[in-house]
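HOLO CASE FILE
Compound: NAP
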Amino acid sequence: MSCTILDGKKLATKCEDFIKSEVQVLISQGVTPCLATILVGDDPASATYVKMKQNTCARVGMQSKAITLPSTTTTQELLETIDKLNKDKNIHGILLQHPVPSQIDERAAFDSIDISKDVDGVTSRGFGLMSMGVNAFGSCTPFGIMRLLEEYKIDLTGKNALVIGRSPILGKPMAQMLLNKNATVTIAHSKTEELARHVKTADLIVGAVGVPKLIKLDWIKQNAVVIDAGYHPAEKCGDIELEGIENVASAFTPVPGGVGPMTINTLILQTLQAAQQL
Ligand code: NAP
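Model generated. Tokens follow.
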């Protein structure tokens, strides 16, 4: 049985070349795409993610504007910062790094981002539009996964898809995107009983739980498509036990090099599209 590696790194690299040339076209027309990044607090992992996003902007010739706010920032202060960026004609996309400190109403902050600049796909309105099949920027990790599935021509019609995790930025939009492509979708979460039984009948599994190797290899159905959105640097693994997966799955995303590169690539692609829409 052959097993396909869904190579997110390769696709992201290929797409970066495309983005780079499109950015040059925009610059020649007097528009330099610019992503504003907002980092609240001093969480080192969040700082690293923001840095990676800024570095990717630089690689493709885009600008980025870094805004760093102290960990004591209030919801009101954050809303005022976002409001200024919404009104700034030189900013095409806004990224608010998740998570924000607990005193901040993160949903209110996300929802205050202008829909035309919601390149990270985090607003409730964007989620609603996407769910209805209307064009909107997708939440970057699930949309990156959909782009990867499309690149490898994985047909989802009628397939039993299981999304494990129901977070607003990952599990929930993932389930809607799969549904829009005619999969039959089940969403599992921390209260789900008999998770293994659900996994055993799934043709496509998305692990999005944040628990290292929670999903075991021997639960996975022969020929299933396996997507691991988790990444745990300390354990060097994702949410799915991938040792020996090539003997079970028809296709899988490696960790690292699968879902991760597609997330940032989708953010940058959507920033380009936001600048093109002006
Ligand atoms: P999250 O907000 O913590 O959500 C985790 C979800 O998993 C929740 O819905 C939770 O259920 C569910 N869950 C937790 N333990 C479970 C269990 N034992 N059985 C079944 N479901 C369980 O996490 P997230 O932001 O969605 O991220 C999930 C994973 O994706 C993490 O590993 C994260 O690092 C990774 N991630 C990767 C990228 C990337 O670019 N590659 C981007 C974002 C996230 P309840 O709702 O019931 O609590």
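CASE NOTES: Residues 140-259 form a domain with the Rossmann fold fold (CATH 3.40.50.720). The mean pLDDT is 97.
CLOSED: yes
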